[in-house]
Amino acid sequence: MARVRMIPAAKLLFDINEREFEKYFPTQELRRTVLAAFTDVPDKFSVTAKLKGGGISSQAEALRHGLARALITHEPNLRTKLKAKGFLKRDPRAKERRKFGLKKA
Question: To the nearest 10°, the Cα dihedral for 30, 36, 42, 43?
Answer without folding.
Answer: -20
